[in-house]
Each structure stands twice: as C-alpha cells, then as structure tokens.
Amino acid sequence: MELVKDIHKSEYGEAPSVVVCTPGRFHLIGEHSWFFKDKTLSMGVNLPVYVAVSFRDDNAFYFYFPQLKDRKKISQPAMKFRKEDRWANSIKAMIFGFMSGGYDIRGMNFTIYSDILPSAGFGINTAIKVGSAFAIRELHNLSCTDEQLRQAISVGNRQFLNTINYTSDILTALYSNEKSLVLTDHATQSCEQVPFDYPEKRIILVDAKVPRVNIWNEEVIREPEYALLLGELKERKSYVHGGWRYEENPHEVNLVLSVAPEMVHKKLHSVIVEHQYVLDAWDGLAKKSFGAFARAVNSSHENMRGEYEISCPEIDWILKRLAEINPNNDDSRNPFNCGRITGKGFGRCLYAILDDKDVPEFRNKLVEFTKIFGFKTSSYVVEPARGVHIVS
Fold this sequence. Notes:
Layout: H1 2-12, E1 18-29, E2 39-55, E3 60-65, E4 70-75, H2 88-100, E5 108-113, H3 124-139, H4 146-160, H5 167-175, E6 180-185, E7 190-195, E8 201-207, H6 224-232, E9 234-236, E10 244-246, H7 250-257, H8 262-286, H9 290-306, H10 313-325, E11 338-342, E12 349-355, H11 359-373, E13 378-382, E14 389-390
Parallel strand pairs: 3-5
Antiparallel strand pairs: 1-2, 1-14, 2-5, 2-6, 3-4, 6-7, 8-12, 8-13, 9-10, 11-12
C-alpha cells in the first residue's frame, strides 16, 4: 500500500486521498451457466488490485498503470470508449455509470497497481472496475448504497463497454471473505458464503499460457428458446440448496431437449449436470467433506472437457498428472486433490487444490509440461481473500 501511495504521489505530485484493495478471483464451478439463471461457486483470492485516487482541479481524468508503464487521460465532455485505451476503459465505464445515475463526478487521478496483468484472467479486470467504483464512491462521499453501487457498475458494463455484466464476478469482488467461497444465485442476483478452511491444502492457480482457440461459439446456446427448455426441467425442491434442481429422470430430460439440435442438446445437458456439481460441491463443504467437494470439482472438469467441450489437451494433461500425484487408493470416490479448467475456457487457466506436501511434485509436473508442450506456465499459490475494502 505504501508503494502504491508513493507511485501515485510521484506521478501526480500529491498523495492519494483514497486507496482501495480488491481481490482477484476465479470460478470453481458453474461460470458458464449464468445465462440460464443457475449458480456459480467462486473464490476471491489474494492477488490484489490497488486503486489509488485523488481529486484534480479540472474536469479531466488521468489514469496510470505502472506495471504496464501506460498512461491515459480524457476530459469529462469527451468521455467515451476508445479501443486504444484498453484497461482504462474499465475505469471510464465506472465513472460513466455514476454520471448516468445523476451523481456529480469531479476530475480525478487514478493509479492502478496489480502484479497480475488483466490479460492473465483471474478477475483482474473486474477488480479494476469494482475497486474504481468503490474508490469513486468513497472519494466523493456519495450517498450510494451497495445496490446503487452495483447498478452503476452494471450501467458501465452494459452501456459504456457494451459487455455482459457478470453477476458472479461482481458479487465475488464485493463480498468474498477469508476462509470462504462465494455462491452466486443468478436467479435472485444474490450470493452467500460457505466456509473453506483446509489449512493442510494449497490452492494453486496456473496460467498454462495455452492460446485460446474457440472450437464453438457459446452464444449458440444462449437463446431464449433454450433457456425456456431448461426452465421446463427445473423442479422446486425445498430440501435442495437454493430451493430447486433440474429434473433427474434421463428420459424426461432427453424428451424435453430432443427439439434442440444435437450439438445444442449436448451442451444444455452439460449445463444441467454442472448445476448438480455446484450443489454437490456446496453440500460437501457444508458437511466438511473435502472428498465430496473434490469429487464434484473433478467431475465438473470432465463435464467441461467431454460434454461442454471447452478444455484442451494441454489443460487435461496437467490435471491428469495432478490426479496421479496422491490418489486415494482406499476410497477413489473421495480424492485428496482436485482441479479444473477455469476462466473463459478453450485453454489458458486452471486451478489445483492439493495437499501441501504434494506441491513440489506438482511444480515438477509443470516443468515437465513446459518441456513437452513448449508453454512456460505461471503459477500462484493463493488463498481466499477479503472483498473490496478501503486500506487508506
């Protein structure tokens, strides 16, 4: 934090008035089924993004990202999306969100500090947005509830960036906590936490550096008619977490989905299965059964690989080696470690959760991976972290 203050003062000639810290994030299960108002299990992690901000004497906005050695600026009247502004568009979108809500926003200086660059994934872009929105609210002392803050973020995403407002991304950045995971319910636009406290385990995020090559377009299944099909298969069950689950009878599922093209049928069925894995993972953690949780995670990756088809041979290779490190020979249904592809899919990132004693062997497997496939990985040992908060 002190380094961030010094950088801001060196850049703008004065110390920041507010410094905000926002965690990075990854999704464990369910990030591809938000369109169908399902659930997503996520973790805010200690890959922090700091946003330092101070007022200016004019109506301009200046942005500085020291790790990128990049500076941007824009005046309030000229506030618009510019492709060349890249990461700075995320901050401009938050300013736009507040201004669209009728708030009087003054000129500001911003410093963004993150050792993990936005291109790596891990929720860095979202952390920039949420941290900036939080800092703007604090600096201007706005009379703005969390709900209104979320609305400003949503307007910035939808109307300025012309992108999807991923609820689970936003809620995890806002409300994550230490030793916990966040479960987002996209139907109610709400979230809750479940304890994740396994001191003997290590969580490793891996950027495999595999280029993303889309083999199919997810927009194909995001049609209202397909959402209606899945809606027909949702059943109210009071004893199920969240109050509902999908139909379990395979014949009924196939009958309802039979009107969809074969490829769409397969993907929609994958969404149904994924929702159950979210519930299974939640149930395992609630019962303090890491084995049940890990089984759900590993099954989810198999679903993403075989049915939803967003994995790749390189990611699969790493996760297969992970499974071989410390198998539970006495009870294969309750593995000691687990892992899954995460992020946008079609390559790039994964996470592994394993015993601390097995970390050196896993790192050796990553070295072997580089020798075989030629991609030099980056890996980060992380742990659940507190959501966005003011540090100064």
